[in-house]
Specification:
Layout lengths: L34 H5 L7 E2 L26 E10 L8 E8 L7 E9 L14 E2 L5 E8 L2 E8 L7 E2 L6 E6 L5 E7 L5 E7 L6 E5 L2 E6 L2 E7 L6 E7 L6 E6 L6 E2 L5 E7 L7 E7 L6 E2 L6 E6 L5 E7 L4 E7 L6 E2 L6 E6 L5 E6 L12 E6 L6 E2 L12 E2 L5 E5 L14 E5 L3 E4 L5 E7 L5 E7 L6 E6 L6 E2 L6 E9 L2
Parallel strand pairs: 1-5
Antiparallel strand pairs: 2-3, 2-37, 3-4, 5-6, 6-7, 7-8, 9-10, 10-11, 11-12, 13-14, 14-15, 15-16, 17-18, 18-19, 19-20, 21-22, 22-23, 23-24, 25-26, 26-27, 27-28, 29-30, 30-31, 31-32, 33-34, 34-35, 35-36
Length: 498
């Protein structure tokens, strides 16, 4: 996964009551396999600090003397990858963390016995996955040592620079704050609850902020977290500033409401189940100062939902038992507008700038397990819908957009017997060249674009047993294998400071 400059989060769709209660439906209620699901066995879930950056935020990257120029294209840094330690990385476990250059040189170990969560979902702050600093030069990780679980920090571009930040052995989670100066983390209490803390990036100045069962979202220097209700029948969400001020109670929910910040951090979008308990839910919005609560949809069943890039609209999937289409609504509740009229559109992925939506569409009953689906794209304002494939064999895993949104990687073919991993080739689509097949006779279980969008990496195996990292040019030429141990369990590509 190539780190974007700004990470837009998605309101997770509530599951319908007749479906299993797994966590793979981060993007859509009907998907049997999502990008987050297959990434669990292949992709290093590196959370980029500063999920959404406040418009008035003054970034001051303390970790690097050089600040990244957002107006120029990013430069490719090393590729980070994990090697399975105990054969458990695919379902949650420990990995040894390495870095390697895209040409296969410079292999180095950054840390051993790093905690990874197997579901691979993002956003999901219960996950102790490694996180990158905003400038991409440092990685924060939760590591098992002689004293339990502690936070460590390492440079991504240097060898033997692993430093321990905590020594209490009770750390549950850690993440950089986008101001570049702070890290938030939780400590597990003896009664198995958690407290929320903040410290400087050098490990000094640790201080407790609040009792917190988990962190849900971060925007600038604001933290959105929850506490479980004593009855274990719901949770209460709060907002607090990183300096400990501004603690406010926002909402009560009987389950995970999946709240996310708007791009400027001023609003929070979430879903609330229907009072009738029919398995559906509506979208609600509230200001980050706990004022202005309002309902955006009424009697709807909501799939995926995201803010528009300017934060003035919300785009979402709305479904019935056999139909789903894409809609948008203003954040004040006005201007509800239907974007697609296919009756069977299933959102797969938004581009990183949220200007395009990739979705699948079937001419059959879209709820059927064996429904044949093709890949479509549409501009986020509902115009320019175009069909990408016409083969009816689009794999259920979500496509991957290039950083500039001009290309997508996707899979075609049925899953392997007894597996949800697509068995056939990986394809690349661009408006200029159309669809091009990139791989043949290889089981690829993870892929992504380089930060500059000019290369593709994938984790693949020709024997379906030994997975290594491969790097490919955008035209499908020059495929080269850069690891050879056959035990790669996760991959992420970092940026390099200019």
């Amino acid at each position: 996964m190539s780190p974007p400059t700004t990470k837009y989060e998605t309101v997770a769709a509530p599951r319908r009551v007749h479906q299993s209660n797994d966590k793979s439906a981060i993007m859509c209620h009907r998907r049997r396999l999502t990008s987050r699901c297959w990434i669990a066995i292949s992709a290093l879930v590196l959370v980029i600090s500063g999920c959404s950056t406040s418009a008035d935020e003054q970034a001051s990257p303390a970790l690097s003397a050089q600040s990244h120029n957002q107006d120029s294209p990013p430069t490719n840094g090393p590729i980070l990858f994990g090697r399975d330690v105990y054969g458990t990385a695919g379902i949650g476990g420990e990995q040894d963390l390495y870095a390697i250059n895209a040409d296969g040189t410079g292999l180095r170990q950054l840390a051993d016995h790093v905690y990874f969560r197997g579901d691979g979902e993002f956003p999901n702050r219960t996950s102790p996955n490694p996180t990158l600093s905003k400038d991409g030069t440092h990685i924060l990780l939760l590591r098992s040592d002689d004293n339990g679980g502690n936070l460590y920090i390492a440079r991504t571009d240097e060898e033997a620079d692993l430093r321990r930040l905590t020594d209490t052995g009770d750390i549950g989670f850690g993440e950089f704050i986008s101001d570049g100066n702070h890290i938030i983390f939780t400590r597990i209490t003896p009664d198995l609850n958690a407290d929320l803390y903040v410290m400087n990036t050098d490990g000094t100045g640790a201080r407790r902020l609040a009792e917190s069962d988990d962190v849900r979202s971060v925007s600038g220097t604001r933290i959105l977290f929850w506490r479980n209700l004593p009855t274990d029948e719901g949770r209460t969400y709060y907002v607090i500033n990183v300096d400990g001020t501004g603690l406010r109670e926002l909402i009560d929910a009987d389950s995970d409401a999946s709240p996310v910040f708007s791009p400027d951090g001023s609003k929070i979008l979430y879903w609330r189940k229907h009072a009738s308990d029919d398995g559906g839910a509506d979208l609600w919005i509230i200001n980050a100062d706990a004022t202005g609560l309002r309902q955006l949809t009424h009697g709807a069943n909501i799939g995926a939902a995201q803010f528009s890039p300017d934060g003035t609209k919300v785009r979402f999937g709305r479904y019935t038992e056999a139909e789903e289409d894409l809609y948008e609504v203003n954040t004040d509740g006005t201007g509800l507008r239907q974007l697609t009229y296919t009756g069977n559109s299933e959102i797969l992925e938004f581009s990183s700038d949220l200007k395009q939506i990739a979705f699948s569409r079937s001419g059959e009953d879209p709820t059927a397990d064996d429904a044949k689906r093709d890949l479509y794209m549409i501009d986020a304002d509902g115009t320019n819908m175009r069909q990408i494939t016409s083969t009816g064999d689009i794999a259920a895993s979500a496509p991957i957009f290039s950083p500039d949104g001009s290309r997508i990687i996707f899979w075609r073919g049925s899953p392997l017997p007894g597996s949800e991993v697509p068995a056939s080739g990986m394809y690349l689509y661009s408006a200029d060249t159309g669809v091009r097949q990139l791989t043949h006779d290889m089981l690829a279980i993870g892929a992504g674009f380089s930060p500059d969008g000019k290369l593709i990496h994938l984790v693949g195996a020709t024997d379906r047993l030994h997975y290594n990292i491969h790097v490919i040019n955008l035209d499908g030429s020059g495929m080269r294998q850069i690891t050879d141990n056959g035990d790669v369990a996760s991959v992420a590509w970092t940026t390099k400071q200019r």
